Write the structure tokens for this entry.
Amino acid sequence: MKKQRLKAVALTTALSAGALMGSVAVADETLEQILQVGEAKTAMAQESQQRIDRLAQETDDLLQQFKVVNKEIEGLRTYNLQLERQIEAQLRVLRDLDQSIEQVTVIERQIQPLVMDMLDALEQFVELDMPFHLEERRARLQMLRDNQDRADISVAEKFRQVLEAYRIESEYGRFLDTYRDTLEVDGQEREVNILRVGRISLMYQTTDTEQQGAWDKEQEAWVPLDDSYRNHILKGLRIARDQASQDIMMLPVQAPEAAQ
């Protein structure tokens, strides 16, 4: 009986040990699965965190880009407003220019006849004036007349040239002048020195200083002067050439005509 009981106990112990070993094996397998699941979840959590961090960084980058673009847009709005004001100002200038161009066209139509009248008057004045530098003065007038037909010269420039010719003619009346010329003296062509004192007196003296004369407006001719004028004309020539200081000279001057 005792042996049977011992066998039974031994068998029960063996069965219990086997069951325990089986439970341990099952527990190990379950723990390994749990650990694997935990590792998988951890990996997934890390991957999710990486995606979250990446999205957060991208969101931050987009936010910064948005701020930059928004600032650029604000700057462009300000710039566009400024451009609009400038364009409006330019449009006003263009409208004023259009009006000015219309006025200039009218003025040009009025200036051209005025320029021709001024040229006619200047030409008449030169022909009636004392005969000094006639070739130069007539050539200037001819140049001005030729320029009136040129399309490459503006009306304003033509008008300026005529005004310049008037200025030059005006300057002739302010200074002493001397130059060489050839005149007919006693029926012979003689080389002479011309002395001009403004527009009040025009004289000549032969280069040998033996003969002298003056322009007579009434006769419109050169008339001889006696020897009493020789030294005075010589002095005037030296003064005009800056070879002598200014001094009093006795010169033939025609009395002014009474006004009509």
The chain has four helices and five strands. The beta strands are 176-185, 188-197, 201-206, 212-216, 221-225. Residues 2-128 form the longest helix (127 residues).
